[in-house]
Model the fold of this input.
Amino acid sequence: MVDEATSGTLVLAGVRKSWEGRAAVDGVSLTVAPGHSMALIGPSGCGKSTLLRLIAGLLVPNQGTIRFGDLECVPDNYSALRARLGYVIQDGGLFPHLTAAENVSVKVRDLGWPAPRVVDRARTLAALTHFPAELLDRYPAQLSGGQRQRVGLMRALMHDPELLLMDEPLGALDPIVRSRLQVELRQIFERLQKTVVFVTHDLAEAAYLCDEIVLMRDGLIVQRGSMSDLRTRPADLFVLEFVRAQRGPKRDGGDA
Done:
């Protein structure tokens, strides 16, 4: 039997986060196995991004615990957490005054990596993410949205983390670039076998990229399972309506 305390398993137990009496996350319990990818999805304000920030140790739960292996995900442990997780946000979250190469290497410079190792790792990740190596000396304003997102992913992967947290990483991209990056992300997930928690509004994206979908509403988990589970065995009317809305309106009286 696998020991969750040491295996790199992500475990959330009764996690609650509230502001002024209103729960943004309301008693969530989840387990994510090593190498497993999970999508958090739901309408705006459902708590999915708050839950991701709690996992990252950027917020402290009012109740409950979050552990990654033997490490509790709280700010006091943030230095140790940073060594084990990568965090990607929309548009990459890059420092505008640093070049792409400097953005990618921010974390590992703090960890004391020697320059040759930094350069070698950056070039390896540029190849993995299909980022042109000749653009590493450019600043974020000189890059396209898709290129900035690739740099953000490279930065998150630079130190080879066990856990990858992604908050709407493709949300600001145009449909063609987004579709291309979805394909590339799926290949990266399959190749690297990281534990991934991926926040998105897009149900099709969640189904394409992740092993499992967690649908949230009002800080609660409404249903957890595969795309097929949500479609054929919806837990309640909200799940049915959410899936139908993602498929678009009906046309000419036919099924959506």
Observations:
- Confidence is low (pLDDT under 50) at residues 1-6, 250-256.
- The first strand starts at residue 10 and ends at 19.
